[in-house]
Predict the 3D structure of the following.
Amino acid sequence: MTVPAAYALSRFPIRGKEVFFLFLLLALIIPYQALLTPIFLFFAKVKLTNSIIGLAILHTSIQLPFSLYVLRNNFAAVPRELEEAAVMDGAGTFQVLVRIFVPAVMPGIITVALFAFITSWNELLGALVMMNKSSTFTLPLVLATARTETSLGGTDWGMLQAGVTISVVPCILVYLLLQRYFVSGLLSGAVK
C-alpha cells in the first residue's frame, strides 16, 4: 500500500499532491499517544478492540506517514530517464513500477519494513489501550504483566529477563539480515 502511494506522490502530476503530502506529514507532528483515546472510542464502536485486525490498523496508521516520507524521497531520487526509457520500450505504469522503480528503491523499501517491524514489535502503549483480554496480549504486554503474575507474590526477575532477551532476538536477527540495505535506504532519498 505504501509503495504505490509513494510512487504516485513522487511521479504523477496530481493536482494538490503537495498539500495532501503535507497533510500526511502532520501526523508526524502529532504524537499518536494523544490520538489513542479517540481511536479507542472509534474502535470500540466498530468492535475492533481485542482484535489483531484493530491492532494492525493502529500500527499501519502509526507507520504510514514516516513510510510515505522515506519512500517518496527514494522514488524521487530515481532518474527520470529510466522511467522514460521503460515507457519508450512499451512498459505500462504498473510495469514501470515493478520492473524499474521497485528494484531501484529496494533499500528504501527494506528500511521502511525494518522500521515498521521493530516499531510494531516493541509497541506497548497502543496494545495496552486496545487489548484487555490476556489471550490477545502482544509480547510487550505479556512481559509487562509477567511482573505481577507470580505465585510467590514477588517478581521472578530471572524469568522476566529471559523473556526480554528472547523478545529481542527476532529484532536483532531481522536487523542483521537486512543491515546492508538499512543505511543505503536511509541515505538514498536524503539529498536531492
